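A quick aside before the break. I want you to see a complete sequence-to-structure record at least once, exactly as it would be stored in a machine-readable document. Don't worry about memorizing anything.
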Amino acid sequence: MWVLQPLLNFVLILRCFLLEGKLLLEWAPKFAEAGITVIDNSSAWRMDPSKKLIIPEINAYQLTNEDKIIANPNCSTIQMLMALAPLKKTFGINRVVVSTYQSITGTGVKAMKQLENEYNDVVGEMAYPYPIHKNAIPHCDVFLENGYTKEEMKLVHETHKILDDDSIGVTATAIRIPVVGGHSEAVNVELNSDFELAAVRKLLNDTPGVIVQDNPDTNTYPMPIYAKDKNEVFIGRIRKDFSQQNTLNLWISS
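That is the input. The structure line, written in tokens, reads:
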């Protein structure tokens, strides 16, 4: 059994769980066996049926003292479900179509350096297969056999697990854009019942961790430049989809 001071425990967790997922599969159980609660930000444990996948504002009630390895969802999943969870509870959800517009920071320092080099007309190491400056790359993570990327399928599988509902249809397109510090999403959600926009806005505005920015008259809507360095999820452009019954369009930045 490991003998470690509490502060040292914390530092080791912080360092270890920023490592690759395959290393986490080896090391997380050792920390858990020593009685240390592990909150893992990698994808290593997210879809493990024996581990909880937690967004505190949505499903923290599932946790018990016995949960020593707790999975943290993908960033794009978190901000989308902060909007969808209250909608599901009130109206029910049939289907979700999401397009993400994701910051280069999700790729890491190599991507930030690529963008900086391109700004300055410097030839350097590439994080992406194409230039990102003045561009949008519909390719986040690796492609799978079904034609979707891992990032896109995370939105599908993690949504089902966190909301505990495999019946919700989810389809996604994940796009990398030359933005630093905030992801955005265009979400089209088909609800199971009719709704009034005023009720939707109030529901979302009353949700802890959510801020509604939705006033076209004053050009008020979420943008990653405002979400940067903030913890809240910003939701706006709330409007009915007139092409489909009981369907809502949202724009989300976080």
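Two observations worth writing down. The two ends are 41 Å apart (CA to CA). Residues 76-103+136-253 form a domain with the Dihydrodipicolinate Reductase; domain 2 fold (CATH 3.30.360.10). We'll return to this after the break.
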